[in-house]
Amino acid sequence: MTHQEISHHRLVSQKLYKKTKSSPQEIVRHFGAMQAQDYAMAKWAIGSRCDASEVAIEEAINSAQIIRTHILRPTWHFVSADDIYWMLDLSSPQVKRFTNSAAKKYGYDDKKLDQINLAIEKMLAGNNHMTRDEIMQELNIKKSSSQEFLPGTIIMNAELDGLVCNGKMKGKQITYALLEERVLKPITKLTKEEALAKLAKRYFESHGPATLLDFSWWSGFPRTTCKIALNALELQLNFVETEGQTYWFGNQISDENHFRESVHFLPAFDEILISYKTREVSILLEHQSKAFTNNGIFKPIIMENGKVIGTWKRTIKKDHAKIETQFFNETESSKKEILFEGIKAFENYLEMKIVIE
Fold this sequence. Notes:
Blueprint: H1 3-13, H2 24-31, E1 34-35, H3 39-47, H4 54-62, E2 66-71, E3 75-80, H5 84-105, H6 110-124, E4 130-131, H7 132-138, H8 150-160, E5 164-166, E6 175-178, H9 179-182, H10 192-207, H11 212-219, H12 223-233, E7 238-242, E8 245-249, E9 263-266, H13 271-274, H14 288-291, E10 301-304, E11 307-316, E12 320-327, H15 333-339, H16 344-350, E13 353-356
């Protein structure tokens, strides 16, 4: 399997061909978790894979069909309400090592964090949705340059403990609410082995063909742990060896997934790039610094036939959205017109006129 073929099959597994109709929640559930620290762009990551508008996706998030919280690695992710509890049970102990270490720098041990959680639970009880600043004000924790990351650490700890998750948006402000008031807690729990195997299967089916190292990077679990999960799944997955690498993928990939011409305007931090340890399959090495930085900042990208050929940015105006593009190589005007057909999906998603500059 060549890099071009791997890239094509990833478009299929990542649902960028929209072969079947899916709801926003179904898209998120398919992926297991979708990186979501850039909230506006993360909504488009869902929208680019289904026909839902931004308004419809926002409603799915506000109604808790989709949860936005810190999980895996850690960073913001979208997770389906169906998956939030077992995934938190699996990843929280590992991720909390980072948050607990950060909290201790501010003099907050486990006991003090538990006391903070009790206070947060009381103030949010009864479907009360509050912003982080409002919560910190109630906790009497003032903004300080010496404790710049303390509020974020406190909230992340509460998220990882399964206490809070995103609430309804308050204008453009993110709020927090009690997770158990938004999503009913399941009666049964998965074992760690069952949950890890479930996460691995979800990853390779939605991101494959991908390597063991890719899964380790995406999930945040050590390679040895991921290898155990992969060994348990061998009979449920397919694999191919290319250039000394073993790529795993789900049974849904077949020779019937013929290549097709495609153009995609994808958001910053999209799973098509960020969910893999190395990205040479989808973007040439000499162009990678133009699409993402060494410290993990990813730009919105333009993909043609599975290869990243440029970047783009959008500016929302009063009655339209302005799109600016930057291609890696000189592009003829006639070809640009064909490429710009790919932006129509974004126009439909925004339900707003697009102006390309």
